[in-house]
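Protocol check, entry for the methods section draft. Step 1: assemble the input record (protein sequence plus ligand SMILES). Step 2: submit for complex structure prediction. Step 3: store the structure tokens unaltered in the notebook. Ligand used here: flavin-adenine dinucleotide. Step 1 record:
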Amino acid sequence: AGTHSFEKSAMSQGEQAQTRAMKSLAAVLLVAILLQLAGCSPPPDPVTCTDGTSNCTVTNTYGSFTDRTICHAANVVYPSTEQELVAAVAAAASAKRKMKVATKHSHSGPKLACPGGSEGTIISTTRLNRTVSIDAERQLITVESGMVLRDLIQAAAAAGLSLPHSPYWYGLTIGGLLATGAHGSGLWGKGGAVHEYVVGLRIVTPAPACDGFAMVRELGADHPDLDAAKVSLGVVGVVSQVTLALQPLFKRSVTFVERNESDFTAQVAEWGRLHEFADMIWQPQHNKVIYREDDRVDVSAPGNGVGGLFLFRSVPTALLVGGRAIEEQLQENGTDIARCAAEQEGATRQLPAFGFTNDGISFTGYPIVGYQHRIQASGSCIDGPEDALLSSCAWDPRIRGSFMYNSGFSVALSKAPAFIADMLNLRDLNPDAFCGALDGRVGLVLRYVKASSAYLGKHEDSIDVDILFYRSRTDGMPHAHADVVDEIEQMALGKYGGLPHWGKNRNFAFDGAIARYPKADKFLKVKSRYDPDGLFSSEWTDQVLGINGTPNIIENRCAIEGLCICSDDSHCAPEQGYFCRLGKVYKKARVCSSEEDY
Ligand SMILES: Cc1cc2nc3c(=O)[nH]c(=O)nc-3n(C[C@H](O)[C@H](O)[C@H](O)COP(=O)(O)OP(=O)(O)OC[C@H]3O[C@@H](n4cnc5c(N)ncnc54)[C@H](O)[C@@H]3O)c2cc1C
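Step 3, stored output:
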């Protein structure tokens, strides 16, 4: 199973034209990336106001939350010290006004950055971006919460220290990535999630009038409330400063090993035990798995490699727009044959080693050895000097470039082999469907996260699955084989008790998820103590925390938009031949399937 049935002779003229266009585009894109563009327009501020700092909106890095809305707020404040932060919280609390932190780039897909209602206060952490202290001897760093990961890992390295794990994209802030439980990959030691390395927080919460309406709470490593405050969805207050336990600076040695899928189900539980920074990329349309063999090596090991993941580099905007136009055509009017051909062609032209290089410029062979801070995360598309949108991050909302969904969910390691077996079965039923269903440039990324004491963290060692896939710019427009990702997600969450990543996913993934967190009640108790009036809570956080309402929005085509699981054909797109059907492997799934596939 899994071999593509496309033959050039079987393609229509239109398909051949689509494929040719895709080929030339992929070639130009590759050249552009190889040339390493000097500039890159950094992403726009997610907060904009019509009247100075009043009458504002907040969105995310894609310019579109999962329900395609943007949020309104009465005003924004930009504290640059903890004192100013306390004053900002006090001002909102004394007026009983809702408030919420927005970060420099606002990466979460769901509406986490929105204050409740439409008259709240946005507290931007953009100016809270300094290192407070570094204690090289005790291997501790304390930073302000708006600091982006790039600056944090560089500051640590400059002091001869490493943050052992982090997300792979360095544009996230430490406050935002902790609040959503963000992670890299690893099962050794404390594992791949950043919150495992937090040993102290200073958090500003509302307070009674007699205490001036706001207070700073200092939570040390042994403080029980730290388990609520480190993964908090931003609902217990504003984290002002974070102290992280670091390790002596080390290097890593990385090799991406490509193998067939024959032992994928067995390897999923094992690979993470074999290599400290192991992950896996499943490319279902190519029947292969790319195993990341990634281990710590001594700092004296030769090598100055860089983890410049191609997805996070700047790209000329003209190419992004052209590429998107072809993608839209393939998605909305193309055939499996054309989509698989385009995908295959793109794969042959990809940068080697996903863009990792041995010296910051080119890939010359494995292993790639480099300092932890240069390997663990990348994101050069936020670094460049402003170039008037000649180039940008691929998803920059100011251009009509890439527009994707990002689903992320974890499955307990003990259940991962069965989950993988189910996904393989689903793929085998129609391998070509996966060409259109997923973003073929990467595939499904599987990363390891360890069980955590954080109340909203993982309660078991888990594999975290990440899927990027096409999102139409037209509300309610189905994309090719949308039922594939829908079934995988419903299977992970429903059959295997998976947990959605707080900062990714579409609405339906969060429905009822809080019931699968055994310590959710402890979290809610801390929340009511720290913020009894729920000033940091919003409609969205109340829905996902099971306090009030549901994240589902039931309306025509809601399942196409990921706002619901379909229970009626009208939740799909019957006019375009998409009907609500049973899953093909997980029969309890309800997915929007095209008539042609069923
Ligand atoms: C390109 C890209 C790559 C990504 N890579 C990874 C990855 O490798 N691994 C991974 O796990 N995730 C990844 N993510 C998801 C990402 O981790 C989460 O979306 C993360 O929360 C975003 O961080 P942010 O700084 O943008 O925070 P935001 O999305 O702006 O904020 C998230 C939440 O945190 C709250 N918050 C922020 N700062 C504070 C504070 N100081 N005090 C209290 N609350 C606060 C906000 O109010 C909001 O509720 C990626 C996302 C993108 C777009």
